[in-house]
Sequence to fold (758 residues):
Amino acid sequence: MSDSIFTIEHKDGAARAGTLRTAHGVIPTPIFMPVGTVGSVKAIAPDDLAAVGAPIILGNTYHLYLRPGDELVARRGGLHEFASWPGSILTDSGGFQVFSLSSLRKIREEGVEFRSHLDGSKHLFTPEKVLQIQRNLNSDIMMVLDECVPYGADYDYTAKSLALTTRWAQRARAAYPAGTAHNLLFGITQGGFHKDLRKRSIEELCGMDFDGFAIGGLSVGEPKAQMYDLLYHTAPLLPGHKPRYLMGVGTPLDIANGINAGVDMFDCVLPTRNARNGTLYTSVGKINIRRKQFAEDDGPLDPNCNCYTCRTFSRAYLRHLYASQELLSFRLNSLHNLTYFLDLARNARQAIIEGRYTDFLAKITALYPDEAAKAAEGA
Amino acid sequence: MSDSIFTIEHKDGAARAGTLRTAHGVIPTPIFMPVGTVGSVKAIAPDDLAAVGAPIILGNTYHLYLRPGDELVARRGGLHEFASWPGSILTDSGGFQVFSLSSLRKIREEGVEFRSHLDGSKHLFTPEKVLQIQRNLNSDIMMVLDECVPYGADYDYTAKSLALTTRWAQRARAAYPAGTAHNLLFGITQGGFHKDLRKRSIEELCGMDFDGFAIGGLSVGEPKAQMYDLLYHTAPLLPGHKPRYLMGVGTPLDIANGINAGVDMFDCVLPTRNARNGTLYTSVGKINIRRKQFAEDDGPLDPNCNCYTCRTFSRAYLRHLYASQELLSFRLNSLHNLTYFLDLARNARQAIIEGRYTDFLAKITALYPDEAAKAAEGA
Fold:
C-alpha cells in the first residue's frame, strides 16, 4: 500500500516533484499545508481553502483531543465531516503541543503525562492512544508519538530520547500494522542537533514500514545556519521513494531550501499568524501593512498575486482594516499569505519539472536577503 | 429629483413595498442595511454581502472621519472605491456616535464639539461639516446633523433640542440645495417621547425638500411598549411619497412592526454584534450557539436558510468554533444573521405584495413571544 501512495515524477538535483494520494484526494508535491489548529484554519473557511488551492490541511491532535474531543468528532463522522472539509487532512501526534503548551508534563516509557492548558486536567498520551485519537479524527495522514527534543539538549539526553522515540514508533506500528486501514501513518525522525544521532534515528525508524517520514525537532529556536546544516544533512538520508515531511517549517526561504534538500511536505502557522500581525508576503518581499507608507497606496497588495485580497482591495484599505483591527483584516491577510505559500509550492514544483530549481531558489533567496545572510553564517 | 428616486409599488395597510434608486443601484424596500462601521461590515467581505443579497450598507461618518479620515477616502475616490463595495451606501450624520462614544461634547448653536474616543483630540461637527465629510465619502444617502435626545429628557429640553435640530436641518439644506449632486439627503425627525413634539418636528422638517425622512431617537433605552407607541404614532405623519427610515432599529420584531407602521428602511448592529456573541436568529426562534445542547447537533443552524453557513456546517461545528473563539465563528455567524435580517425584509416585501402582511407580522410575533409581551405591556 505504502509504495503506491507516492510517486516522484521529476527530480532536479535533490528536489522532487511528485504526487501523494490519500483517501481524500491527490496532492501535488512539494506542498505547503495550512494549519487548522482546532478544526479551522484561523479566519479561513473551506471555500477560502478551495480558492487558495490547498489540497491538504493540518489538524492538531492535542487541541482536538481536548476540545471538542476526538470521540465527539468520531460521532460526527470524523474531522472531514465535522469541519466540512473535503480535502486531505494530516494530524500531528500531539507531542509537540504537549511539550510547548501543557504544564507538568512527565515523560515515561509508557507515554507522556500532562495537564491541559485549558483547564489543568490530567491526561496521558501513549503511542497507541494518539493513534486512536487520530483514527477517531479519521485523518488521512497520522503521525506517531515522538519526543521533540528542545534546542540545547546534550548528547546523552538526545540519544536516550531518540531511543524512546524509536520504541514509541515500534509500538505505534505494532498497534496499527501497515495496511490496517486507509489512514496513512508517518514516522518522525529526531536526533536533535547531533548529526550521528540524526543518522541513527533514521536508520532505526526507516526500517519500519511507515508510509512516509518526517524530520522533527528542527526550527525549535536554533540559529538558522544550524537548522540548514542539519536539514541538508538529514533529508538525503531518508528513504528516497517515500514522502518526506519537514515539520513546523517555515519561512518561504526555509521551504525553498527544504525542497532543495529533497523534502516534499511542509506545514507552519507562519502565513496565518503573520497575517494576523499584519506581516504579508509578496512577490517583491515581506511588508508590514501597518506602516504609514501604505496609507494612500492604491495599488494591490501584490500585483503578481491572483487571490481575492489582491484582486479586490488596495494596500490603503488593507492598512486601514489592520489599523482598525477589523475582523475582515485577519481573513483578507490570511487569504493572501496562504495563497503566497501555496503559490510558492506550486511554482517550486513547476521549476523542478522544468529543470530550473537552482534559479528558483536563487530568486527566493534574493527576496529575503537578511534571512539568507543568517542562513549563510558559518557556512 | 427627489420624487423619482422612490416609488411605492404595493401597499398592504400602512406597509409599503417600494423601490429606492441611488447612484449605485436599485434597492427593493422594505430593506435592512448592514452596518459597516469603519468601512467594513464586521467580519464580512463585499463578496459575502453579495451572497447575502445586501443592496445597501451603512457607514459611520464619525468613525470614518476619525479613521482613516474622510479626505483620505476622498483621495481614494470615495468609500465605494476604498472598500471595493459596488452597492449603495448610506452614511449617518455622526451625531449619534458623538453623543454615545465621545467625551466632553458641547452642543452649541454652531454645532457639537467633542473629543475623539481614539486619541482625545478635539473636533467640531457642524451641519455643513458633516455634509462635507459625507460628500467626501461620496455616500449615496447622506443624513443631516441632529441631536439625538437621550431617553428621559424632559419636555422643555426636548422642545429646545428639536428646534436646534430643525435649524441645523435648514442650514444643511441651504449648504446643499436639492439637486446639487447625486448624493441624496435625508432629514431626521426627533421629538423624544412627546407625541406633540414628534408632530412638530415632522411639520418643521418635512416642509424642507429632503429626499427622505428618518425617525431618530427611538430605541435609546425606553421600554419596548413606549417605543412601539411612538413608532405607530410617528411613522404615519411622515410624507407618504418619500422613503421613511427608522434609525438604529432593531430586532426582527421591531423591524416587522416598523414595516407595519409604514417604514421602509432599517439599520442595526444587532445581527452582526449578536453573531459575535453567539446569538443566532433562526426560522424557529433565537438560539445561543454556545449552549451545550448543540454540542452533538448535526443539523444545520437553520434548515430553512440557504446561506453558506447553513448550507455547509452543523450546529455542532458552529458551537465548537464559538466555544474555541475561532475567528471563523464570527464570520459564519455574521453571514447567517445578516441573511436572516435580509430574508426578513425580502419576505416582508413579498407578503406586502401578496396582501398578507398581517399574517406575516403575526408569524414574526409568535417567534419572539417574550419580546412581543413586552411590546404589548400597557397597550
Remarks:
- Chain A has two domains: 3-268, 274-369.
